[in-house]
Amino acid sequence: MNIINFFLIFLITNIFTAKIAISQSFTKNISTSASFSEVTSGKYGVWYKSEIDGSSNQKLTRPFIIIEGFDPGGFQDLGTNYEMLNNGTGFLDKLKCEGYDIVILDINTNTLEMEKNAMLVNKLLNEVNEQVKANGSTHQSKLIGISMGGLIARYTLSAIEATGREHRCEMLLTFDTPNQGANVPLGYQHFVDSFFMNELAMNEVLSNLPQDLKDINPVSKLSNVLGDKLKISYTQPAALQLLSNYVRPNRKRFDFVNALNFMGGYPKNCRLVGIANGSSGQYILNSLGNEVEVLERGKELAAGSHTFDFYTTHFASGVYYAKAN
Length: 325
Description:
Helices cover 37% and strands 20% of the residues. By secondary structure, the chain is an alpha/beta fold. The strands form 3 sheets. It has a 7-stranded mixed β-sheet, with helices on both faces. A two-stranded antiparallel ribbon has the order 8-9. Strands 10-11 form a two-stranded antiparallel sheet. The longest helix has 21 residues.
């Protein structure tokens, strides 16, 4: 994941974003023991499929499961996760009209090690599979993991397969997931260490502000918020597992990658799809500062591949993909 602001995402989209009230048909708290002293917990909501007459079929028969991403501040809930994928395009609403039941997992213990929250996803899959079977359906689940949620889902399915069990998931889609690690520049990490987490440095900066800014309380409050949230964002176990490089020795990342590779790296018994956020076009700047087209919109990339346009209210981009052999 080659973006500098990986751990600023939640500051922009979460700290200053209110939770959104989008009513779901069913909610349930879910938890599991991750160790003798730790419990993973969360809540999942279900938005049932829509019938032709607009009514809702209150039976879970064709699950489309979404696992939330990195949310160390706990600012996202079921409603904001639904709106994030549905806003602008009506993506989830359209899926309901196509006969899918939307299931979203909001993880409370978001900053714990990913393998611990994978146990929570495993329990969710078991409950969903039981409901689908009880309702007389043979449909398997489609699973989407947003950002870190993709890694948690990937670990879950790999672990299930490694123990010879059946997950009944026909597709895993990772959405902007740092499958090869999150690349946060070491300079940025040192900056956070030496500035936001150093009270003396913070006080020195604030003392040099113009008087009119000193009189505005939100300035110091914002600094405190940024410092606290940035500290949480990249010092917690889940963040350490995500980082491909770190300012100090990082055993968390090493152990997680080894465990994942030991189980085969990726699940084998489902279709794998990856989507990554990119720039707003197919152009890059060359050394002279001129735009150069690197991908021609609509051009076939390779035999059997396709291109198409993708649009939301947040960005417009060409999405290019090629089918795996």
